[in-house]
Amino acid sequence: IYGTFAAEQPTGALASSLVYVSFFDLKNRVRVQLGQGLEVNYEGSAVQLPYHREFVSIWYDSDQHHIYVYDHDLGLELRWDGEAALRITLDARYQGETKGLCGTFNADSTDEINLLKETVVMPSDYQIMVQAWELPTCSHKVSDYNPVDFCLPSLQDYTSCKQALTNVKFSYCVTELPPIHFIERCEQDLCRCADDEACKCDVVSAYAQMCQDVINHSLDWRSDEFCPRNLCLYNKNGCLHKCNAPGVCSCDDGFELGADGKSCLVIIAE
Fold first, then answer.
1. End-to-end CA distance of the chain
2. Could you report the per-residue pLDDT of 34-80, keeping only the tens digit for each?
């Protein structure tokens, strides 16, 4: 499984965001790439969902706006939110057998941040771990960027992140999944991001998805005012002509929006 990241902000600061996910099952010659929204490619060709082959099934959950990929032979499931958050679920047969950026899958949360030679490092040194697992073909040079402590989050960054991640909508999460580490990550991202709201909402979305997995209950946490989902990524939200984030339809010149808010009608001069 490979992730393609948008690693640099327009300001030149480093603030990564996952934009594409590539899954390869070398044994069964399966290649799947997941992009933004409903963009799904199988063996290099765009496919419509649901899509089923001998070893893999791909489908879309329209309620949660998640795309799922399940490899029947490997016992591996990917859940992609179509924007920036990915969850990987492995069959129990792999317990204690995994290494890399996704952890060790051994029920021990103290050794998740580790290097190639199983040297455990502190969570604050996560960048060292990321560099250690970097592919040889990656052209990213860490030396081109300022060190992680160069950007000092402001009180405004902290307040904005804390308010978002301790929102009453997450009241069920606080005990099972304290948000402190997400607040810290959010602060660092806001310190570097050109678009504070987008970066903050990426972190909040990751927290919400992890919380839902922990409490086994769906959270209706988004609203028009708080991290609205960009529905334009999902079949243009049904808009006939144009879709403007987060999902408002508009029409080309010479047309007007229909009563359904999605269709476009020709303007007839009186």
1. 59
2. 988 888 999 989 999 999 999 999 999 988 888 999 999 999 999 99
